[in-house]
Amino acid sequence: MATGHASRGFSGTQGFAAGVRGRRGGSRPATDGRSQAGAALPEIESRTRDRVLQMVLDLGPVSAADLAKRLGHTPTAVRRHLDGLLADDLIEVKLVRSPGSRAGRPARQFVLSRAGQASLGDDYLGIARIAMRELDRIGGEEAVDRFIADRVDDLGRRLAPAVEAAGDDIADRVRALGAALADEGFAGSSTTVDAGPMTVMQLCQGHCPVQELAAEYPRFCERETKMFAELLGVDVRRLSTLAAGGHICNTHVPTGRAAVRITRR
């Protein structure tokens, strides 16, 4: 578990939640055997590289120009670090069209790669995977479902106070949930999407502490989607997940309707 955040992420199995040590001033992500270009940089350059990687995690998909503006560096300097991170396979390029844009070339933006996501993990992932498989062998599908439900519902109970404090407006609740997810280490954020007559928001997660486990046990994602719907009081729809190969976990939330409160256990 991350120091000072014993309940961060999906608690209950050591290592499920420790994946974001770099978010609050912890150790830098390792390159895990890939190019060591970053390690050879002078300390100031290395810190800048780490800040670029962190901002790609928090903001991705994000352009080099946007990163340069937020960091106060020249686009050329930021692109140099992006090229190094690309060479280390910690980030990758996504071609993204602006919402509502039908013509023109898609923008070149950056997200964490699967290797980059894994580099933010912890030493207990292998143990957690073995434990899940042993639980499946001994208790079967029902025991696995119960374990996953308990872990996700525990996260939901920690997120609930922030969402409830936001009031009844769905958009406010989505923004509060995104911020609460960020505090839990999921690189959470929210954005409003122009969908014509319907008002919708997207709840995004740039990091998942159990991504590799969720790839093997998709019920993590299914249960989390259900938990979001219960917290927000509206039906939501999962558009993509990191576990299934997406560059973010993206949840579609309709905001033009009243919340229906569901009492959580």
Task: Quote the distance from N terminus to C terminus.
Answer: 25 Å
Helix content: 40-55%
The number of helices is 8
Strand order of the largest sheet: 3-4-6-5
Q: State the major sheet.
A: 4 strands, antiparallel
What is the 3D form? globular
**Mean pLDDT score:** 78
Secondary-structure-based class equals alpha+beta
Can you describe what's shown?
This protein is of the alpha+beta class and 265 residues long. Helices cover 45% and strands 14% of the residues. It has 8 helices and 6 strands. The strands form 2 sheets. A 4-stranded antiparallel β-sheet has the order 3-4-6-5, covered by helices on one side. A two-stranded antiparallel sheet has the order 1-2. α1 crosses α3 and α5 runs antiparallel to α6. The chain is globular, with a radius of gyration of 19 Å. It starts with 42 loop residues before the first helix and ends in an 11-residue tail after the last strand. The N terminus is likely disordered.
